[in-house]
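Slide 14.
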Amino acid sequence: MKAQRDVWGATLTALADDDERVLIIDGDLATSTKADVFAAAHPDRFIEAGIAEQNMVGMAFGLSTMGYRPWLSSFGVFLTHRALDPVRMLVSQTGAAVRIAGHYSGLLNGSSGKTHQDIEDFAIMRAMPGMVVIAPADEFEAEAAFRWIADYDGPVYVRVARDAVSPVFTDAVGFRLGAVHTLREGSDVTLVSTGVQTSRTVDAADILQQRGLSVRVVHVPTLKPVDEDALVAAVGGAGAVFTVEEHSRIGGLGSLVSELSAESATPFRVTRIGLADGWSESAPSDFLLDKYGLSAERVAEQVLAAL
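Slide 15: predicted structure.
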């Protein structure tokens, strides 16, 4: 297994081998985001901006107007919170082709705690006009997504997870904007997930199937835009629909699916599994996943309790 951050560093390095327009602007976190791999291979196209995320966004915008393909490298929380105003003004409002790599996003951030954990990024970036929002499931989908983003002519936010997870796909996976993937078929329960949480959701489906339930698993790698008809079709017809995300229950995947249900000719009930309205905390990853109901065992327990 490979962590998405390792795949990100290696993929961008390979892309830069063939395209002189690719560059990285880093916020003093290159060893954490693995931008240091890129820096070693292409020092002339690696810009260390220090702890100055707002300035990084301005630099990326300027470089994008000159034909470069800049990537921002920092923890997601600093790019979606500290640098939010320049992202809104310089990137979203202009439609600039700036690629925002939100590393260490989600709950699991090396025990850094609520100051560094970004569990609101989906909600913030989904609401940003013109912003594409992507959360790949594993190392293989991540590489395909990074390669797609590199050629996209517009603003993109992509979650890049810190830790490796069990792969959901194979090395043959591609990436298509807005696609919805049904990983397993089932008729009793549909579990809808995104990002690396999908790997844990697949494990939760195994537990539920051992309890005699027929479980469908749907993966949504693009929070915006999404193929709305495909998503409604993928979750429809099941006895119960649960969204599962390493994010606040407010504004993320659960909100997306609920919005589509409300507008559907055949609405369905949605139960949202995610973090409640409150701040997270510093602790080992397994502890946090259990406490906030996102481990495979806790997800299965919540589904059974709701049923």
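Speaker note: The mean pLDDT is 96.
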